[in-house]
Amino acid sequence: MPQARPTAPDTRDTAASPDSPATPPPAGTGTGTGTGTGTEGVSTPRTRNPYAHLFAIPGATAFTIGNLIARLPMGMFSVSAVIMIAGARDSYALAGAVTATGLAATAVVAPWTARLVDRHGQARVAVPATALAVLGSLSLLLCVRFGAPDWTLFASYAATATTPNTGGMSRARWSHLLKGRPDALHTANSFEQSADELCFMLGPVLAAFLCGSLFPQAGTLVGAVLLLTGVLLFAAQRATEPPPRQRTSDSPKAKSPLRARGMPALLSVFLATGAVFGSMEVATLAFADAQGHKAAGGVILALQAAGSCAAGLVYGALRPSGPLDRRHVWCSAGMAALMTLPLLAVAATGSLVVLAGALLVAGMATAPTMVTGMTLVQRYAPEGQLNEAMTLAVTGLLGGIACGAAGGGWAVEHLGPTAGYTVPAAAALCALLLSTARACATSTRARRSARTRAPYGA
Questions:
Q1: Contact status, residue 138 vs residue 77, Cβ threshold 8 Å
Q2: Cys-Cys crosslink for 430: which of 6, 111, 226, 272, Cβ 3.0 to 4.6 Å?
Q3: Cell membrane among the record's keywords (predicted)?
Q4: CB atoms within 10 A of CB 76
């Protein structure tokens, strides 16, 4: 890999703010990094299918396959841990506390792991970090199997917090390969969001099947093997890996992306969006249980993920116009509007079938919101800190999911299953308000900057 200092990914649209990076090179130019990706100076034929154009880039298919294998277990581990611990210790409270501990540890450790990835490279950090996380999963499996004290379960699951943000690393590669090509990067981000939805839709189903049909530890064991295998395959694709951020003795100390202008407000939107996901999951499982069809809850939630996955792929094939900040507001507005459908469905009909249709439609608004949000993260991320910035966004989502699950659980417990759906609707409205306030602040800052640069008397 060359040791030249990488430039920040430029994902501006035609109406980017003054805080955005410098003007990108013309579309279709090479990355200029000399990494041998095969994109430099190559004229790729135009095609009606933007995804075919995307995967025509040499090495893109290879790193995507490895990343998908590594990403699938992300939807398996928590379900597998709950089934395994609850079955062996006869305590869902213990199982929930252990998985919550792992979530909290991930929120603390993941940004530091991502910072090391930015500084030293994906392959050098992701492989040992994954190995440590896999050891934590295997330790949890053995502690449950042989009846170790409860504290060992917490310690083992906390060790899995070193799992690298595989989705963020994949998005970082696309940003590197598609620098100066915002339309293609929009398609790549849409594909990655759809892949997230697919993995979190199939992961829990696969985990439950393995634990139920084989043995209680099967989900954790298979997930650990898939994670390590996928990361090794992904890391082996060195030609598409973005070069690490080089530091010299006179380089200024890197600041956290949290201090980048625009990032804190954007992360607050991710927090509210995560609350939509967490509360919707709890409310749906509780409503299905109240209807006497507990097993149907997972299937209905899978329909929501399916709707989001399909919408993400369609959104990636489109070429939306207008400022990115404004698109984010419109996508948030769509999410706020559609998240009222599940509440209306259960309040008006009380039917699981109608609820399933409402969740399928409601899910179609989440992927476009996430895609535009992640593109904004790529815009505001400081130079050489893209992995850390995107991991902070994922951490915000996880924090929101935890808060949403707690809020949804309280509403279900004290107000009833139907009232539980008011929480995701309120969280979506909160995300819209935060997105609107952020966009207005950005627009105001841009106008002030323009007036400052304007000649006197203009």
A1: no
A2: 272
A3: no
A4: 27
Residues 191 and 258 in one domain: no
Q: Which of 43-57, 188-202, 406-420 has the lowest mean pLDDT?
A: 43-57
Angle at CA of residue 455, ends 453 and 458, nearest 5°: 115
pLDDT in tens, 69-86: 999 888 788 778 888 888
- Shared domain for 312 and 265, answered yes or no, is yes
Report helix, strand or coil for 291. coil
Burial call 242-257: b when 16+ CB within 10 Å, e when fewer: bbbbeeeeeeeebeeb
The answer, yes or no, to whether residue 59 has pLDDT greater than 80, is yes
Distance CA 71, CA 392 (A): 18
Q: What is the CATH number of the domain that holds 338?
A: 1.20.1250.20
Determine phi and psi for 262, rounding to 5 degrees.
95, -20
In a domain, 120, yes or no: yes
The Cβ of residue 124 has, within 10 Å, a number of other Cβ atoms equal to 15
Q: Is residue 63 part of a domain?
A: yes
Mean pLDDT of 328-344: 93
Same-domain check for residues 241 and 353 = no
- Whether the CA torsion 120, 169, 298, 417 is positive or negative: it is positive
164 within some domain: yes
pLDDT, tens digit (0-9, with 9 covering 90-100), for 281-294: 888 878 887 888 76
Q: What is the DSSP string of 294-325?
A: TTHHHHHHHHHHHHHHHHHHHHHHS---S-HH
451 and 339 housed in the same domain: yes
The answer to whether the beta carbons of residues 316 and 429 sit under 8 Å apart is: no
Mean pLDDT score, 16-28: 38
Rounded to whole angstroms, the Cα distance separating 319 from 45 reads 18
> pTM of the prediction?
0.71
Compute the distance between CA of residue 200 and CA of residue 68 in angstroms, rounded to an integer. 11
C-alpha angle 92-94-99 in degrees, rounded to nearest 5:
95
C-beta separation of 316 from 191 below 8 A: yes
Determine contact, residues 261/20, Cβ cutoff 8 Å. no
Tell me the CA end-to-end span of the chain in Å, nearest whole number: 49
Token pair 């950005």 is found at 442
Encoded tokens for 155: 């310690």
Strands (E) located in 363-423: none
Q: Which range marks the domain in which residue 196 is found?
A: 8-13+59-246
Q: Look up residue 218 and give its amino acid.
A: A
Residue of 171, 183, 139 lying closest to 157 (CA atoms) = 139
Query: What distance in Å separates the CA atoms of residue 109 and residue 397, rounded to the nearest whole number?
Result: 15
Q: Are 411 and 283 within one domain?
A: yes
Q: Evaluate whether residue 42 is within a structural domain.
A: no
| Residues 239 and 274 placed together within one structural domain of the fold | no
What tokens were used for 306? Answer: 């399916």
